[in-house]
């Protein structure tokens, strides 16, 4: 047996997506990292061992322009390129390769941390046993990140934590119980099936649960075409201790899976003769255990009110999603959901321990109430929290700051580093003084100016209210829609303010009008509504239900625009008072409309500002490639600057919901809005253009281009001849350092 000492700047315990992103983020900031994982694969609940879909702020399409960027975004986009079929083992490879690509990370798989040395509110070392190699490894670091899910590191260090449900009186949360208890969300084991092409019998094991003696057949959905996370409701252990009773919970979950499969195969109620079990999980996927207490406890109110924290470092959008303690055996529905109006913010003060001064945490163990945890717990949100922790820990170490002093006194350091990393943060403009582009001016070979889509791809009956989101920059007016009418009629049209830049719902009525629509087909109908807000933002135009009218739809949509229709909420869903139960279900890209000229796609959008949709699309768009065959955008400084690195951020269409494993397929491997090819040039002070680099066959959002030596330049120019399918060239941001 060997005893090893490992010394790094940061030790990250837990190799789920939170830990992976924390380790990569810190490594990219120049810090050495030990990433310690007690399983043979990375990815946690998303790995091939457990196979839970990676869900996040998009909330299966409820929230818009919400897909995560940063490291989690890179994993999403890379998996889309390499693994469009959703093979779980290929997903393991995507995650593993992302970690191995970072030379500053030392990866320790199969290493279970069991002991810890701490004193005076500080962790000095953690020690783990690496199974198989029989090594005892002690990890020494000035900072630690507990991304273990269950929170073992913080527990051993004496960090203050909570389990179970707080009383309603603690935070005045309406979804909290009157009396506190130890109930948590339970664990789940999933299974996958396949058609064997011939009859396959199933002889259940003796321990299989007879589900006909439970409420499962009447209360839960069982289908032969369902597998994986369609059976998320196979959940149990919420009324037990999910750690102390882990073995009993696993046994009960497996007994239930085999009982459900026995019911499918042998009850005679299903056509399942040729189906066989392809895979069943051996590791319970845990949802909840310890939640550490930081300087801020995120609550139901923070989520639903979308509170704008000064120290925001990440965002979420999943509903507050809580399950009954009885899990699959409960007589009530398997889950209940409360949706915020849009994405909400998470502060840095919820990501470190308030009493262990060198302990960060990310994932499902952050500082949140049980109710708020119901939304922060999904994996893509855990991942962006991990990146925030990795960046913050690196910044704190580099400046000899405690987590608290960093969050409270020097947060600008974190904000600038997160911008530079392209992390998932909402509503924080790039004000980094190191970004030389902030003093440049932008011009382009062409710019999309007209808000209009005029070519019809079909029509859609106005049998329910229809809403369209349009950018307003600086104003909106001259609205027209292409309509059919079976008879002379009147159409009611409303103009709404979504109230927050990250919302895309008709939340506050600004004005409305009644528009006469004459009988006939393909008539442009003017709508006399206008809006001149004090700052650029979005408007939501609602066409009220009229069965005599059909609206013409288009095959394409302009950046930042949306079209969706009304639906009634499901029985397990609840919304904030203003949420109108809208969902993006229109089967085509959008409507045929005209809305005048706009500055929403001007070249200046690539300078500073926001690097994702927030009160507008926040990108430069050229005119159609048919008109501008080689779009170019140029940044010019009033006097030469010395540049060592140029960063280009492209449009990976964060409206597109990319989920790993078998949830859904998108029709392409590379997002069409990404540039396929571009050339970057610098202009020297004497006016000479020199090539810096050419990128081809691109499928990535973020590109960093280091100059071999610091170079004085007076301008930068990006030229692109091809996209991956978009009719126009899009660039989100260009930065120079």
Structure summarized in a few sentences:
By secondary structure, the protein is of the alpha+beta class. 17% of the residues lie in helices and 32% in strands.
- The chain-level structural class is alpha+beta
Give the end-to-end Cα distance, rounded to a whole number of Å: 49 Å
Secondary structure tally: strands:
40
In percent terms, what proportion of residues is strand? Answer: 25-35%
Bulk shape: globular
Rg (CA only)? 27 Å
The percent range for helix content is: 10-25%
Mean pLDDT: 95
Biggest sheet layout: 7 strands, antiparallel
Q: Low-confidence parts, pLDDT < 50 over ≥5 residues?
A: none
What is the tally of helical segments? 12
Relevant terms:
737 residues, alpha+beta, 7-stranded antiparallel beta sheet, 12 helices
What does the model show?
By secondary structure, the chain is an alpha+beta fold. It is 17% helix and 32% strand. The strands form ten sheets. Strands 20, 35, 36, 37, 38, 39 and 40 form a seven-stranded antiparallel sheet that branches. Helix 1 (17-28) runs parallel beside helix 10 and helix 2 crosses helix 3 (88-100). The protein is globular, with a radius of gyration of 27 Å.
SSE topology sketch:
Elements: E1 2-7, E2 10-13, H1 17-28, E3 33-36, H2 70-82, H3 88-100, E4 105-108, E5 111-119, E6 122-130, E7 135-140, E8 143-146, H4 152-157, E9 161-162, H5 168-171, E10 187-188, E11 191-195, H6 216-219, E12 235-236, H7 246-266, E13 275-280, E14 291-292, H8 300-304, E15 312-316, E16 320-322, E17 336-339, E18 344-347, E19 359-361, H9 370-376, H10 379-398, H11 403-409, H12 411-421, E20 441-444, E21 450-453, E22 458-461, E23 466-472, E24 479-485, E25 489-497, E26 508-517, E27 520-527, E28 537-543, E29 549-554, E30 562-566, E31 573-575, E32 582-583, E33 590-591, E34 593-597, E35 620-621, E36 632-650, E37 675-683, E38 689-695, E39 702-723, E40 730-736
Parallel strand pairs: 1-7, 2-3, 2-8, 3-4, 8-19, 17-31
Antiparallel strand pairs: 5-6, 6-7, 9-14, 10-12, 11-13, 15-18, 16-17, 20-36, 21-34, 22-29, 23-28, 23-30, 24-27, 24-29, 24-34, 25-26, 25-28, 29-33, 30-32, 35-40, 36-39, 36-40, 37-38, 37-39
């Amino acid at each position: 047996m060997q005893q090893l000492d490992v010394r790094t700047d940061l030790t990250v315990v837990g190799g789920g997506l939170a830990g992976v992103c924390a380790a990569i983020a810190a490594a990219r900031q120049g810090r050495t990292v030990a990433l310690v994982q007690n399983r043979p694969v990375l990815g946690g609940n998303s790995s091939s061992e457990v196979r839970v879909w990676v869900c996040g702020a998009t909330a299966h399409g409820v929230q818009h322009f919400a897909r995560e960027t940063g490291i989690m975004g890179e994993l999403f986009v890379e998996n889309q390129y390499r693994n469009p079929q959703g093979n779980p083992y290929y997903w393991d490879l995507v995650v593993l390769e992302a970690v191995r690509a970072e030379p500053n990370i030392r990866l320790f798989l199969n290493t279970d941390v069991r002991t810890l040395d701490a004193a005076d509110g500080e962790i000095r070392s953690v020690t783990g046993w690496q199974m198989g190699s029989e090594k005892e490894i002690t990890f020494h670091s000035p900072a630690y990140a507990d991304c273990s899910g269950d929170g073992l590191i913080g527990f051993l260090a004496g960090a203050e934590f909570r389990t179970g449900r707080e009383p309603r009186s603690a935070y005045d949360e309406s979804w909290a119980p009157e009396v506190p208890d130890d109930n948590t969300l339970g664990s789940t084991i999933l299974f996958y099936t396949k058609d064997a092409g011939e009859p396959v019998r199933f002889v259940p094991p003796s321990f299989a649960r007879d589900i006909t003696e439970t409420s499962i057949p009447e209360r839960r959905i069982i289908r032969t075409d369902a597998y994986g996370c369609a059976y998320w409701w196979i959940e149990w252990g919420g009324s037990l201790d999910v750690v102390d009773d882990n073995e009993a919970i696993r046994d009960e979950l497996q007994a239930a899976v085999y009982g459900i499969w026995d019911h499918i195969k042998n009850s005679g109620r299903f056509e399942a003769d040729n189906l066989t079990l392809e895979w069943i999980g051996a590791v319970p996927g845990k949802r909840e255990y310890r939640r550490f207490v930081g300087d801020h406890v995120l609550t139901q109110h923070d989520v639903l009110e979308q509170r704008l924290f000064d120290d925001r470092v990440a965002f979420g959008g999943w509903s507050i999603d809580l399950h009954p303690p009885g899990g699959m055996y409960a007589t009530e529905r398997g889950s209940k959901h409360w949706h915020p109006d849009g994405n909400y913010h998470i502060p840095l003060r919820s990501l470190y321990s308030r009493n262990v001064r060198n302990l960060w945490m990310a994932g499902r163990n952050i500082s949140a109430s049980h109710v708020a945890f119901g939304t922060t717990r999904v994996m893509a949100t855990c991942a962006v929290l991990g990146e925030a922790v990795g960046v913050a820990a690196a910044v704190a170490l580099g400046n000899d700051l405690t987590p608290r002093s960093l969050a409270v006194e020097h947060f600008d350091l974190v904000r600038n580093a997160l911008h530079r990393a392209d992390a998932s943060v909402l509503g924080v403009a790039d004000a980094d003084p190191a970004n030389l582009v902030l003093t440049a001016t932008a011009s382009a070979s062409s710019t999309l100016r007209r808000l209009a889509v005029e070519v019809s791809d079909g029509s859609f009956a106005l049998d329910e209210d229809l809403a369209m989101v349009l950018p307003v920059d600086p104003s909106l007016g001259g609205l027209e829609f292409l309509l059919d009418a079976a008879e002379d009629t009147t159409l009611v049209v409303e103009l709404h303010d979504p109230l927050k830049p990250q919302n895309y719902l008709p939340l506050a009525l600004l004005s409305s009008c009644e528009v006469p629509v004459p009988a006939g087909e393909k008539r442009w109908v003017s709508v006399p509504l206008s809006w001149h807000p004090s700052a650029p933002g979005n408007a939501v135009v609602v066409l009220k239900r009229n069965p005599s009218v059909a609206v013409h739809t288009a095959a394409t949509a302009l950046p930042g625009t949306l079209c969706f229709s009304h639906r009634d909420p499901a029985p397990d869903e609840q919304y904030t008072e203003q949420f109108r139960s809208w969902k993006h279900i229109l089967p085509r890209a959008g409507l045929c409309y005209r809305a005048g000229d706009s500055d929403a796609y001007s070249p200046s959008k690539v300078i500073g500002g926001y690097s994702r949709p927030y009160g507008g699309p926040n990108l430069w768009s050229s005119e159609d490639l048919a008109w501008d065959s080689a779009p170019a955008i140029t940044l010019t400084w009033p006097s030469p600057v010395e540049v060592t690195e140029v960063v280009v951020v492209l449009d990976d269409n964060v409206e597109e919901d990319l989920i790993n494993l078998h949830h859904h397929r998108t029709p392409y491997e590379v997002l069409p809005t990404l540039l396929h090819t571009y050339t970057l040039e610098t202009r020297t002070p004497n006016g000479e253009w020199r090539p810096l680099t050419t990128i081809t066959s691109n499928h990535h959002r973020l590109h960093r281009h280091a100059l071999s030596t610091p170079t004085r330049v007076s301008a930068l120019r990006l030229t692109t001849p091809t996209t991956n399918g978009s009719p126009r060239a899009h660039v989100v941001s260009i930065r120079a350092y």
